[in-house]
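=== RUN LOG ===
request id: a7f3
mode: sequence -> structure
chains: 1
length: 199
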Amino acid sequence: MLTLKSWTGLFHRGTEDVYPTFKVRAPRDYFERADAFLEDIVYTSQEDLNGINKTFLVKLLFDNFMDHVRKGKDLFTYMLQLRSKFGGIVSSSNANSPLTGRTSSGSVPGFQWGLSFQSSSHDRASYLTLNVRLHPAEVNRMRVFFDDLQWKHHQSLNMELHELLSLLFIEFITELRNGLTEETKEEIVAAIIHKWEER
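=== RESULT ===
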């Protein structure tokens, strides 16, 4: 019987979905702000959110983005604005980093990186990386989405999924720091709690 089980295991190898891992890069203080935000939610909600973490938050932000994609919204301008507004943060985190195979310059025609400082090893050390695993179907859907954008706008964003995840995370933390309205904060907390209970 042991032989049969081991032989059966051979037939099922490789049939399980392999969840690709993507790197979310951001300054250390952004991750610290995310931790503080999640701790505040746990404290104020009185819910059992044991184990909630930054990876869950990034997945939630991505799920929200995917919801807009699936509803057919044209997010090309939004993504250009994301890169324009926060791309300098992402590009400096990726400078001389093995996480990307491309340079940070010239991604969007007419867009200029306006970094006024030299990146040093100390600057790179102040950036952290968060590994986020996505379902293969989500990754494939995003490939189709990027292709659709290129088809519709006759222009490639030259954006990879790890860059998009980093930009979504940085945008969210920036909005947190700028101060959310009470109504918006309540909606976000309710969505986080609901999604956490669904898992």
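=== NOTES ===
The radius of gyration is 19 Å.
The chain has eight helices and two strands.
=== END ===
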